[in-house]
Amino acid sequence: MAAAAPPPPPVPAPTTLPNPTPTGHPLFARVRLADPSDVPHIHKLILQLAVFEHLTHLVSATEDSLSSTFFTSPPFHSFTIFVLEVSPNPFLPTLLHPPSQPPFSPITRTLTLDLPIDDPEKETFRSVNSDGFDVVVAGFVLFFPNYSTFLGKPGFYVEDLFVRDCYRSKGLGKMLLSAVAAQAVKMGYGRVEWVVLDWNVKAIKFYEEMGAKVLEEWRICRLTGEALQAYGNAAN
Amino acid sequence: MAAAAPPPPPVPAPTTLPNPTPTGHPLFARVRLADPSDVPHIHKLILQLAVFEHLTHLVSATEDSLSSTFFTSPPFHSFTIFVLEVSPNPFLPTLLHPPSQPPFSPITRTLTLDLPIDDPEKETFRSVNSDGFDVVVAGFVLFFPNYSTFLGKPGFYVEDLFVRDCYRSKGLGKMLLSAVAAQAVKMGYGRVEWVVLDWNVKAIKFYEEMGAKVLEEWRICRLTGEALQAYGNAAN
């Protein structure tokens, strides 16, 4: 029908030109592979995630327990973490986190904000090696390979995706999740999966809009603590 | 209250002695690590699982796709499969599947059945290298490491647990799941998790009786197919 529509009326000459230089505040964002120096920040982000999910009573992770279980395999073959950093200044790849890990080239985006962000935890989350560059850690995603026997191929499972409060609703969570999806596509993997709390309708809407399906019929079963010990011991 | 109960009456002398030699039929069961020669059986079991779950339309796995994605890492560090074998005869560890993989010693159980099992697919599922020993593959479990950031340690996720129809309700599914739980305990892992369809009340009851918790609030989100491709491509 659009092809049969009458031609548009002539456009009147503009009386004012659009502003060629936007007056917004730029925020530079970067997704990169985490390394061991990021563990203190990751630990703090995990605690903030637990507060958000009303699940602080379940947290027993320490910096030591994270350090001893992360980075034991090459990235993407086991537990893998992307860190999200933001800065009011452009990233200089040769100066910040110079070891550019070959399996992953950092992804950068530039946002334009109406107002600069007032980050109350700027000092706590200042990036390692960021002296003089005003870079802070704003979030992370932890993921690892899973397997679909129906597809006969691996995928990625996203265990945690978190962006600090003052950086939310700016597309940064989407940037992290997209980075995982892009890596899955690059590796020929079949799926990216994660879980969401059924009361988190805002998140569910967001995931559905990006094309994800929420599997209503499946429930997670968990064997942990004393029940795991008892059941495991009974096998021998 | 039991301690205050009156003493039981004297037991009369039995007029017939209990049968000291049970007349049941023994079924010997063994859980061992799968190897590449098991792939044809595993593929057939995956198809049977899809039929059971009413999800055959989702299956695109082939023997080739399984072969190219399994056994790429040492067992327990990535995708790992235990095969369940059964036989009317005791297993002779030195004769069947002689390469006793060092990271896992096979687990055996002996069941006593009232009637021998009539396995209509005995020839299809006859074990590799079982010539003359009457061993068949009766089920499998596929699992891999996952990670709990709250615990700060890994666990195992069980993607598939399946026992063929004629071998069900004999404790063999429990034997497979126990083998995974025992391995988790052995490795100091914090959890074993899996999913169940919410209409499968028999399975849910079984899992709850073994001490597992069903997480009612969580829903799985899945990004796959064209939506995954589109989302992943948008990141670059």
UniProtKB/TrEMBL annotation, chains A, B:
Region (Disordered) location: 1-24
InterPro entries per the UniProt record, alphabetical: Acyl_CoA_acyltransferase (IPR016181), Diverse_Substrate_AcTransf (IPR051016), GNAT_dom (IPR000182)
GO molecular function terms listed in the Swiss-Prot or TrEMBL record: N-acetyltransferase activity
Gene3D superfamilies: 3.40.630.30
Every N-acetyltransferase domain range: 81-236
Annotated keywords: Acyltransferase, Transferase
PROSITE patterns xref list: GNAT
Pro residues composition bias: residue spans: 1-23
PANTHER family: DIAMINE N-ACETYLTRANSFERASE, GH14572P-RELATED
Record protein name field: N-acetyltransferase domain-containing protein
Organism of origin: Carya illinoinensis
Lineage, opening ranks: Eukaryota, Viridiplantae, Streptophyta, Embryophyta, Tracheophyta
